Amino acid sequence: MKKLLLVVIASQIMAQNKLPINWTVGYHKNIGDTPANFYPSTVPGAPQLDIMIAEKYKQPIWYADNVKQFLWMENTYFTYKVNFKKPDLKPGQTLVFHSKGIDYEFIISLNGEKMFEQEGMFRYVNIDLTSKLKPSNELTITIFPPKMAGSDRPKDELNINGFFRDNARTSVKPPMSYGWDWHPRLISRGIWDETYFEIKESQFLTQSEIQYQLDGELKNAKINLNIEGKNLKNASYNWQLKSPTGTVVLNKSGKLDNDFTTISDNLSNITLWWPNGYGNPNLYTSTLEIKNNEGNTVGVQTKKVGFKRSRMVMGDGTWIEPTIFPKSRSVAPATLEINGKVIFAKGSNWVPNELFPGIQNRENYEPYVKMAKEANFNILRSWGGQVINKESFFELCDEYGLLVWQEFPLTGTNYPDDDKFLNVLELESEAIIKRVRQHACLAFWSGGNELFNEWSGMTEQSFAMRLLNMQCYKFDRNTPFIYTSPLFGMGHGHYVFREEKNGGEVFQWMPKGKNKYTAYPEFGVPSVASVEELKKFIPANELFPPKPGTSWETHHAFGVWGVNRWIELPFLEEYFGKINSLEELVSYSQLTQCEGYKCIFEEARRQKPFCGMAVNWCFQEPWPCAANNSLVTWPGKKKPAFDAVKNACRPTLASARFQKFRYEPGETFACDLFMLNDKYEKLAPMQVKVKLVYDSNKEITFLNWDFPGSDENKNYEGPTAKIPLPKMSSMFFKIIVEVPSKPEYNSEYTFLYKVPKGIKTKFLNGVSE
Amino acid sequence: MKKLLLVVIASQIMAQNKLPINWTVGYHKNIGDTPANFYPSTVPGAPQLDIMIAEKYKQPIWYADNVKQFLWMENTYFTYKVNFKKPDLKPGQTLVFHSKGIDYEFIISLNGEKMFEQEGMFRYVNIDLTSKLKPSNELTITIFPPKMAGSDRPKDELNINGFFRDNARTSVKPPMSYGWDWHPRLISRGIWDETYFEIKESQFLTQSEIQYQLDGELKNAKINLNIEGKNLKNASYNWQLKSPTGTVVLNKSGKLDNDFTTISDNLSNITLWWPNGYGNPNLYTSTLEIKNNEGNTVGVQTKKVGFKRSRMVMGDGTWIEPTIFPKSRSVAPATLEINGKVIFAKGSNWVPNELFPGIQNRENYEPYVKMAKEANFNILRSWGGQVINKESFFELCDEYGLLVWQEFPLTGTNYPDDDKFLNVLELESEAIIKRVRQHACLAFWSGGNELFNEWSGMTEQSFAMRLLNMQCYKFDRNTPFIYTSPLFGMGHGHYVFREEKNGGEVFQWMPKGKNKYTAYPEFGVPSVASVEELKKFIPANELFPPKPGTSWETHHAFGVWGVNRWIELPFLEEYFGKINSLEELVSYSQLTQCEGYKCIFEEARRQKPFCGMAVNWCFQEPWPCAANNSLVTWPGKKKPAFDAVKNACRPTLASARFQKFRYEPGETFACDLFMLNDKYEKLAPMQVKVKLVYDSNKEITFLNWDFPGSDENKNYEGPTAKIPLPKMSSMFFKIIVEVPSKPEYNSEYTFLYKVPKGIKTKFLNGVSE
Fold first, then answer.
1. CA–CA gap between residue A520 and residue A666 (Å, rounded)
2. A154 vs A205: CA distance, rounded Å
């Protein structure tokens, strides 16, 4: 038993026969220099954090303007160092260095001799060190400073805010870390994923992958298991597949032909994987075991497999023949069809949940993925400004039923038709595709974010785009690919509750999207964080009133797109009057975020089937933002807008379209009623009531609608309810759309009643008194 | 000397050591059948024509409704047969069968044994027959009936007109031959390009290709010559490159490493190839000679090479940031930049110049290519409904300076995501790209025609599109690739002078395209053929009045898109009154074609730089059309519109925009003046006069404009000239925009004066009396 166990853990896939080592890291100015100090390093992690601890920087990094301490580091080299004795290797055994990710351009040396170099953070590194080992060894990894392309600003003008994404335009590396409107300039580098030294036996399994082709009825599949290893000729295998309920549906044994073997079989009566809201995220379990001629296990791999088919199709009504000549083309397809069913994609833009990819892991991914499911989302757009997430992210999305729109790490700039860059992109994209295609959650690929807009300047002719299309076609053609978002027909924005030059409030511009936008892949309404969270990262003396130049600005409340974005103070004061306290500011700001998001999500759904997607900007954030469009403040605190969005994304709900947010005394209030239904179930007839609630306890039911029932996956437009607004003393009133027989379909909206001067009242949790 | 000559002609490239053979062909119902008769066959050619001659069909094929005799043939197999004695082969010699094109699905057998089969008409066939030869041999090529996909009409409803392109949707084969609005249903098949048996020596050159990479300044290039052959190891080569003026600029000799050798060099001070209107189509001459160890020449290849760089860029002003949120993308790039200069693409859609590709050749291509140059065109869109033209077409375009927009042979239907189809498309497209990329004239690739429109139903997600993008990127990435036309921003149509529901006359809808359309890749104005031509193919008793159901309909004057298209009788009679003779019909029809085309070409040019292309539908036709949008009637007879278009496409001209074509007595006539200039030369100041000419000899100059001069490659907008129309007795009047100092810039336009009833006058050559 003991022997078997030892051999099992020697397989690279289990990767347990690791050398115990201690990493250290230091920094230096020139490539040949030796760092003045080597500090203890956490791997995977971020050298910046190791230095912060060793050199006793102000902590934590996310407090006040502590992040400014890190800016100088982008001009240095980092060198990791590890010393180890040569292990006692038996004949046939080798010592291998393995890393799943080193960010971004680096050289690996053993005892001063260069063993490997790479530009690219996504390709795994595997180096057999055996023949170069000495009794005592020193392995170093030297990380180059990040490339600084296309910067037209002198280095000393760099600051912690602002967009410097052009610096990243020759790198296949997250441009967001060069500075974004919710991310400080803080360029990630270093060992960011699992990395270790391992003693390998003479025979081992390196990897296996399941590929399948579903038949037209999505009931049966041809299934292949591709096995790759070393010295596996004539080794015996056993491959077992268990259904989501644990039944063994496939059990196959035999001998392997060589180091690359494909085992094929047919599978029938498949239980499909479904995204949240359309069924269960059913996963099969595949177990492969390889034994050598002596009967010893030389490799075991257990994997989850979900069966699904994803297509990007034209939504009903989007095949519009341009009405008169000269005729152009119809819009680009933007509706997802999963397992033959058209779905309405509801979700959010996933951005990093930590400042450094090296500290992202299953533990800190999971609360967010769980919340995304709770929000009734079925998709996450893994936006192109960040890293390709670690395996555990995709495993969680597989498990929770969240589709992933995966972008390559390109965004918002013009990546060149340059051989060196394209070569890195070709190698990195192949590694990315081959890893991520194995996940049931993968909905489609995208070349990157906003690349065909003026501010980026790329087109269909850009080599990087054509290359990525080729790579996805070569390695994963059954998964749809789009060059970028927005494509023709899609719309990004807006990102605020109201801007006059954009047509006013969300209530005003959103309904104009009808039969115009196929998808809303980005839109946002900002709010400031809660009082409790703000107090954690903004020093007490800066808390109120918020001012530019303080931690509020470092944390993106000011100076992002103009002075007052994302805090939007002039807008808030125009609507709500002079703001007297932090509590008032937070309440007003969060109320507009709630009502704005409800409006957009519900209106986008009303525009189905021409529209197929509503994906807001953004879900979470990598560090605490004082003001942001996010639904969840770092580290994982829901804003009130989270619940508002969750309600707007219920599969079925009673909903209403409104004309505006603020009303004057004497106006007639009007709203158009709808039953929204994304379920593949018919709705029965039911009574719907529309109520006005004001002054705490006053309530007027002003419409009773006999909803006659409706078809599956169809919305239904009801009557317009109207009421002359009564005299109110409250600053707010609510509209409740109530379904007495199905209270889970009820919806509630809050509006501003512009009371005459002098009757200013205190805002309290929605309805004021 | 004699020996040398013999060896030279044995090289495949010279291909002179051919076996003299006589082809025969027959037809049969089932694949195993022997044809009842084998008739003499012209190869390359069309079996349909061989049968027509042998079975004494009514001739010629293009007269009256003779073409209907051929319809039954699409349901048969054709088998070609050739008998030959085994040639006297010396040791090392082989007998090879070679074909540059067999249409479409076929089996080649020798003495009853299957040697080869292929689906695809564009891959060259090379079969070494040597080991299978008997003293007497019979080689057969059996051609399958064409595939009939997606037809929702019963076979017996097929007729000679109408669109049946869905039948072609699983074939990489011209859909146009299944029936189009200017092509009868007549599906091409058979040996359509050069085909022969050849005795090969033991050493030979199979092919060589020159590839180059120009530097950023387009002055110098890295140049590679890739040589491929058999038993060439240690053979010596001499490679000579002569400049367009005959100077030897490169002369390199050495030994070949093996059967695939690349010879590299640098070239400086390159004389670039330019399209018509922008410079000379300069071609270098490359000569490669290979000699064996005995000093005998075993291969010679002479090629023309033109150096150019083609890019597809965003026209000035097309990078429009969508003005408000939600923001979609900017238009797709549609402006050509050749050798670093933005050009305005002026040209025409090239359609087949013969009914069968097997009878197209340099002799019948050349008059059309020559006329295209004469028309001041710089581009031909080789539209996706037809074959990829033969080598001689591209050689002519190289020589005459006509850019080629080359589409793959896909158009107007939904090509499936089907492995079998995609496999053929992958192989065929590779062969096409590797052949055509060698020509200087190649401007850009397109996946096919109108594929992203409702009537086709394909999208960016269609595998055929993604595959073609990949193939072009892999094999010719420096040539731009577009999925299809129209893309977002481009406009196809309209195809008539006036249609009320389309916004009226061309004079009315064309100006609305300003800052809206990036390119007009298809537009047309129909006319009937000239009286002389009509009399050649329409029987005398059917000539006048034209009626549906007669040869007029077989030749596309009626029943194409509604009853009266392309003849447009109701429109002509509304404008010109009752038409009393064929001569009158032809004059009125051709006048509207002239004025309509002038309007569109000149207005598209006025929309520069937002607009980058004006390419009319269509240049010529494959057989005589009674009415068509073509500028040239088959076989090569210019219509008056040819000269109208030629004038509208002059690099520099004085031009005017008009509001409409017909005027009432008492109206004020107005026109906006422009100087149009596509030359990279400034225009000097000059006087421009605007004259009204009417009643034969009356003339009023109603504006003198002091044009102040203008920049290179820029248009200049002048004043609006106005005149109250005088009383006229003529039915037509002319406007002449005259530049006394540069009469070559003069322009002339004809308009209809709707004279009161009873004063009907006789139309005579432009201005009537």
1. 35
2. 51
| Residue-wise burial string across A223-253, b where 16 or more C-beta atoms lie within 10 A, e elsewhere | bebebebbebeebebebbbbbbeeeebbeee
Q: Using CA atoms of B129, B131, B133, B139 in order, give the dihedral in degrees to the nearest 10.
A: -30
Burial A732-753 (b: 16+ CB within 10 A, else e): bbbbbbbbeebeebbbebbbbb
* DSSP SS3 for B14: coil
Q: What φ, ψ does residue B520 adopt, rounded to 5°?
A: -115, 85
Count Cβ atoms within 10 A of the Cβ of residue A314 and give its class: 0-12 exposed, 13-18 middle, 19 or more buried: buried
Calpha distance B366→B373 (Å, rounded):
11
Contact A520 B326 (CB under 8 A): yes
Reduced to 3 states, what is the DSSP secondary structure of residue B392? helix
Number of other CB atoms surrounding residue A422 within 10 Å: 18
Distances (CA, A) of A244 to A120, A249, A280, A282, B621: 37, 10, 10, 6, 63
**Neighboring chain B residues of A520 at a CB cutoff of 8 Å:** 326
- Which residue in chain B is spatially nearest to A329 when comparing CA positions? B453
Angle, CA A726 vertex, CA A721 and CA A730 arms, to 5°: 110
Alpha-helix residue ranges (DSSP H) falling in A477-613: 506-509, 531-537, 551-554, 569-576, 582-606
Contact B477 A463 (CB under 8 A): yes
**What does the alpha-carbon distance between residue B551 and residue B723 come to, in Å, rounded to a whole number?**
46
pLDDT band per the 50, 70, 90 thresholds, residue B9:
very low
> For A609-638, how does the pLDDT look when each residue is reduced to its tens digit (9 = 90+)?
999 999 999 999 999 999 999 999 999 999
Q: What is the DSSP letter of A666?
A: T
pLDDT digits (tens, 9 = 90+) for B543-554: 999 999 999 999
Q: Which of A214, A310, A323, A327 has the most B C-beta neighbours within 10 Å, making it the best mutation to test the interface with B?
A: A327
Other Cβ atoms closer than 10 A to A134 = 10
Q: Are B485 and B449 in contact (CB under 8 A)?
A: yes
How far is the alpha carbon of B594 from chain A, nearest alpha carbon, in Å? 19
User: Is B452 within 8 Å of A326 when comparing Cβ atoms?
Assistant: no
pLDDT of residue B535: 98
Q: Model pTM?
A: 0.95
Q: Which of A325, A330, A565 to mutate to test the interface with B (most CBs of B within 10 A)?
A: A325
Q: Please determine, for residue A445, whether its predicted confidence score (pLDDT) is greater than 60.
A: yes
Q: Is A453 touching B (CB cutoff 8 A)?
A: yes
Contacts of B334 (CB under 8 A, 6+ apart): B312, B315, B318, B487, B489, B490, B518, B519, B612, B613
Distances (CA, A) of A518 to A316, A605, A715, B39: 10, 11, 16, 59
Question: Which residue in chain B is spatially nearest to A600 when comparing CA positions?
Answer: B326
pLDDT at A763: 36
Establish if A261 touches chain B: CB-CB under 8 angstroms.
Answer: no
Contact of A477 with chain B, judged by CB distance below 8 Å, is answered with yes
Q: Give B159's pLDDT tier (boundaries 50, 70, 90).
A: low
First to last CA, chain A: 73
Sort out which chain B residues have CB atoms less than 8 A from A501's CB and list them.
324
Report yes or no: A493 at the B interface, CB cutoff 8 Å. yes
A467 touches chain B (CB under 8 A): yes
Q: Which residue has the tokens 């003693």?
A: A199
Tokens of A638: 């829901």
3-state secondary structure of A249: strand
Distance from C-alpha of A94 to C-alpha of A84, rounded to nearest angstrom: 15
At A347, the amino acid letter reads: G
Average pLDDT of the segment spanning A555-559 = 95
Q: What is the pLDDT confidence band of residue A123, given thresholds at 50, 70 and 90?
A: very high
